[in-house]
Design a protein that fits this description.
229 residues; 2 domains; 9 helices; single chain; Arc Repressor Mutant, subunit A; Four Helix Bundle (Hemerythrin (Met), subunit A); 3 strands; three-stranded antiparallel sheet; mainly alpha; globular
């Protein structure tokens, strides 16, 4: 019994370590793609990506599968993979889905967030307001990522989380490539702050309206990029 238990614990520990490596490899590659260090349209190999971010072939292969599900890359059998191009029409269709999911997640988070999560939402709202006042894009982008993940965590709906994770990377990359030209960063920060504050207060209707207001701005921002093409 003791030996069997130890074997199960060792197996569970090995699985957890493998999952951790895969998650770290995914985050490293996703950041490289979102921040355009790996350019849209680039053709890369699994071996090159492994060398680039310093992870072994197995976690890299599993990370690539996740990136493919999120449409950040397309796998070409025996040829490598290609980083997806950025297309405004695709982005607008994505926003149709994201608007509905964001509203649902905002309501669920306002209803289900734990006490410590509400405190963090309040802190994020204050940080966003400060980032907006100082036009601090670095702090804004850091808080934006944390905010998105916290909404999904506190919503406690695995189906909404799965769907939202498919659109976050594409949305962040589109923002990153265009925000310096057409974004109103203080306004974006204020809208995020209002949504975070509504969730912190547990006000489901206000959170849903704040989510819609944020999506209105993001769609406006997306359409404004047409003038940059």
């Amino acid at each position: 019994m003791v030996v069997a238990t130890r074997r199960r614990e060792a197996s569970a520990g090995a699985q957890q370590e493998a999952e951790s490596l895969t998650e770290r490899a995914y985050r490293a590659l996703e950041e490289q793609i979102v921040t355009l260090k790996i350019a849209p349209g680039a053709i890369v190999s699994e071996a090159a990506l492994s060398k680039r971010v310093g992870f072994g072939r197995t976690p890299i292969r599993e990370a690539i599968q996740r990136l493919a599900r999120e449409r950040l890359v397309t796998i070409m059998p025996r040829r490598g993979l290609v980083v997806s191009e950025i297309n405004i029409q695709t982005q607008l269709r994505l926003l149709e889905v994201r608007r509905e999911l964001e509203r649902l997640a905002a309501r669920c988070a306002a209803r289900r967030a734990a006490t410590e999560e509400r405190a963090r939402f309040k802190a994020i709202s204050e940080g966003m307001e400060e980032a907006g006042r100082s036009n601090d894009d670095t702090t804004f982008m850091r808080l934006d990522r944390e905010f998105n993940l916290l909404v999904l965590k506190s919503a406690r709906n695995e189906f909404a989380t799965g769907a939202m994770m498919l659109v976050h990377g594409l949305s962040r990359r589109f923002w990153y490539i265009h925000y310096k030209q057409v974004a109103d960063m203080p306004r974006a920060a204020r809208l995020h702050a209002e949504m975070a504050r509504a969730i912190a207060d547990g006000d489901q209707e206000r959170a849903a309206k704040a989510s819609d207001a944020l999506m209105d701005y993001i769609e406006e921002f997306t359409r404004a990029t047409l003038s940059e093409l």
